[in-house]
């Protein structure tokens, strides 16, 4: 497994456990510049992160907590929010405190710089990578692409079917696959997701005329109601004044018209039952798509 993985991926690997198993193993990992992970147990009043290494405590000084902290374009909340979670780091040195106890000085910033230089800078448009959702806003989901490096997945790139918020697709901490779609004016990676969810034809092939299936009301227009069957597939039902966006629905498939890429539906039932993100079905399993 690559060491350039979203935070939380490495902590339970044998390589990580072995590196934290003894003082000598820690020293060896330090000499090799390995990226390791431990759980943050505290962020003190100076915003230094305290890390549980098992055999000793580790400290990540505030200015080594993340790329951009020292420069001021990353806020301290990025450190505070790591408490209770896995944190990546490189071991800088092993010292003794005033009581004579050993502790390790760690750097998350250097782990991120290594990930940027040896991994993120080499990613090309069309590359497919595994990321972890870290937080969500109305305009998109922020994802850890490796070692705490964050990329944006814009809401319009999540699926073909339009959604009101990324939370209807994902949950924080979820591992998903994304496509590198480009970079912003600061060189930061922009992600896309919808290309991996299949074409209209691939999605429509999962359904048959005469079936009654679950769906989600996504849009209510004067000429009809759009019901999402899959993230990249929606059908149109007749207008119904009683349904609202976000409702769950049971729909009867009246017709599938491949040449027009249309599915005609009849709403059988609907409810206010809250929709929770379902398991994502990926139609493409390769490592790159030419776009």
The strand count comes to 15
H/E series, N to C?
Answer: HHEEEHEEHEEEEEHEEEEE
List unreliable stretches of 5+ residues: none
In CATH terms, the superfamily of the largest domain is: Nucleic acid-binding proteins
Task: Indicate the proportion of strand residues.
Answer: 35-45%
- Profile the largest sheet: 5 strands, mixed, barrel
Question: What percent of the residues sit in helical stretches (DSSP H or I)?
Answer: 10-25%
Overall pLDDT metric: 94
Corresponding CATH architecture of the largest domain: Beta Barrel
Number of helices: 5
Notable features of this structure?
OB fold (Dihydrolipoamide Acetyltransferase, E2P), 5 helices, five-stranded antiparallel beta sheet, five-stranded mixed β-barrel, mainly beta, 291 residues, 15 strands
Task: Characterise this structure.
- The chain is mainly β.
- It has three domains: 14-117, Beta Barrel (OB fold (Dihydrolipoamide Acetyltransferase, E2P)); 123-196, OB fold (Dihydrolipoamide Acetyltransferase, E2P); 206-271, Nucleic acid-binding proteins (OB fold (Dihydrolipoamide Acetyltransferase, E2P)), CATH 2.40.50.140.
- Helices cover 12% and strands 38% of the residues.
- The strands form three sheets. Strands 1-2-3-5-4 form a five-stranded mixed barrel. Strands 8-7-6-9-10 form a five-stranded antiparallel β-sheet. The protein has a five-stranded mixed beta barrel with strand order 11-12-13-15-14.
């Amino acid at each position: 497994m690559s060491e350039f993985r979203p935070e939380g991926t490495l902590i339970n690997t044998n390589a990580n456990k072995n590196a934290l198993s003894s003082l000598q193993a820690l020293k060896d990992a330090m000499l090799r510049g390995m990226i390791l992970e431990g759980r943050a147990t505290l962020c003190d009043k100076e915003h230094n992160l305290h890390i549980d290494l098992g055999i000793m405590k580790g400290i990540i000084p505030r200015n080594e907590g993340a790329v951009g902290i020292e420069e001021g374009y990353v806020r301290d909340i990025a450190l505070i929010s790591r408490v209770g979670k896995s944190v990546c780091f490189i071991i800088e040195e092993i010292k003794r405190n005033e009581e004579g106890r050993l502790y390790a000085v760690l750097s998350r910033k250097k782990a991120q710089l290594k990930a940027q230089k040896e991994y993120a800078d080499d990613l090309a448009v069309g590359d497919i990578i595994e990321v972890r959702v870290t937080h969500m806003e109305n305009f998109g989901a922020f994802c850890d692409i490796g070692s705490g490096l964050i990329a944006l997945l814009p809401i319009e790139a999540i699926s073909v079917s339009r959604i009101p918020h990324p939370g209807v697709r994902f949950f924080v901490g979820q591992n998903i696959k994304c496509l590198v779609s480009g970079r912003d004016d600061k060189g930061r990676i922009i992600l896309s997701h919808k290309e991996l969810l299949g074409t209209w034809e691939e999605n429509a092939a999962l359904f048959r005329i005469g079936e009654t299936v679950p769906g989600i009301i996504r849009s209510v227009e004067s000429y009809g109601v759009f019901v999402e069957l899959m993230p990249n597939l929606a059908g149109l039902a007749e207008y119904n004044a009683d349904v609202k966006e976000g409702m769950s629905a049971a729909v009867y498939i009246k017709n599938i018209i491949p040449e027009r890429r249309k599915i005609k539906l009849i709403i059988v039932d609907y409810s206010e039952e809250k929709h929770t993100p379902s398991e994502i079905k990926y139609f493409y399993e390769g490592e790159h798509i030419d776009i």
